[in-house]
């Protein structure tokens, strides 16, 4: 898809399994989606503003693409409509804690995002919260992205790694990136000059992808697992933040000081290729249940 002030087009994607747009788009996988006054979700995917509306049969997608077929293909991939979510949920429901999360959020799906945007976003997520990450990512786009529109809606694309690397640490700090600024600048430089070829990582085995990502300054196992899960087709990735660590202690009686590699081995041994989905259901189930 390419940006520009072209005629708005729409296409309906059929969705055979459950899909809830709010938790899928706005609950911490991606940080560019915003609800409008009509309850539609507006975001930027690639070089286009995209607007999504849930319909009885699926999702109505609006953008300004070259052809509706291109838009349908791109958004079906982005929303991971190729995942057999009922089958995944059926397998995971053997675990009572994950089953409770599935009952609470049956339409929560994973996304397949752009790897560079995902890497940058999760570098910025460190020691932060979802509203602040949204603000920082949007500030980065406003400063260095390209303007795009959908009808009367104007947004900016996520900036290319070359632009972020060129901005440098000092300017990134002024945007609110804080201590993460040098990590973001270094990652942008590695992607821009070809030392890190993110697209090629999709075809690599999990250990090789983990090694490549954690070789970046400021990128640890948790950020690497988020990038793998949300953009690089590694559904066995199991990001372990403080909420997931709490799950493991309180619901599974795992030792408090268990190492990250040991947590990964436990999760992948228990949930296999569905570990990422299990992680997301557990994460949101404990977060929301803790609010009560």
List the helices and strands and how they pair.
Layout lengths: L8 E6 L6 H6 L7 E2 L5 E5 L2 E7 L3 E6 L4 H11 L6 H8 L3 H9 L10 H10 L5 H15 L2 E4 L2 E4 L4 H17 L3 H12 L13 H9 L6 H11 L10 H9 L9 H12 L3 H17 L1
Antiparallel strand pairs: 1-5, 2-3, 3-4, 4-5, 6-7
| Spans where pLDDT lies below 50 across 5 or more residues | 1-5
> Strand content of the residues, in percent?
5-15%
Span from first to last CA? 43 Å
Order of strands, main sheet, comes to: 1-5-4-3-2
Strand and helix order: EHEEEEHHHHHEEHHHHHHH
Silhouette: globular
Major sheet description? 5 strands, antiparallel
Rg computed from alpha carbons, rounded to a whole number of angstroms = 19 Å
Helix count from the secondary structure assignment? 13
How many strands appear in the DSSP assignment? Answer: 7
Helix content: 40-55%
Structural class by SSE content: alpha+beta
Mean pLDDT rating: 94
């Amino acid at each position: 898809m390419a940006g520009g002030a072209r005629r708005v087009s729409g296409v309906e994607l059929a969705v055979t399994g459950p899909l809830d747009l709010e938790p899928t788009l706005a609950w911490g996988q991606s940080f560019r989606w915003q609800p409008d006054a009509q309850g539609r979700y507006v975001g930027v995917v690639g070089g286009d503003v995209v607007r999504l509306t849930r319909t009885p049969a699926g999702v109505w997608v609006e953008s300004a693409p070259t052809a509706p077929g291109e838009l349908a293909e791109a958004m079906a991939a982005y929303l991971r409509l190729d995942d057999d979510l009922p089958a995944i949920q059926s397998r995971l429901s053997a675990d009572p804690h994950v089953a409770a999360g599935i009952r609470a959020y049956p339409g929560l799906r994973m996304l397949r995002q752009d790897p560079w945007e995902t890497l940058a976003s999760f570098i910025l997520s460190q020691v932060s919260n979802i509203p602040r990450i949204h603000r920082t990512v949007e500030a980065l786009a406003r400063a260095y992205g390209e303007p795009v529109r959908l009808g009367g809606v104007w947004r900016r694309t996520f900036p290319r790694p070359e632009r972020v690397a060129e901005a440098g640490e000092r300017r990134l700090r002024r945007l609110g990136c804080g201590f993460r600024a040098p990590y973001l600048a270094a990652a942008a430089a590695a992607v821009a000059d070809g030392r890190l070829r993110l697209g090629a990582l999709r075809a690599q085995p999990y250990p090789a992808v983990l090694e490549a990502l954690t070789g970046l300054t400021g990128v640890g196992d948790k950020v690497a697992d988020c990038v793998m899960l949300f953009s690089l087709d590694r559904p066995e990735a199991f990001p372990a933040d403080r909420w997931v660590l709490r799950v493991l202690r309180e619901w599974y009686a795992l030792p408090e000081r268990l190492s990250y590699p040991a947590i990964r081995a436990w999760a992948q041994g228990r949930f296999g290729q569905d570990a990422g989905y299990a992680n997301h259901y557990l994460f949101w189930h404990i977060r929301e249940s803790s609010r009560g």
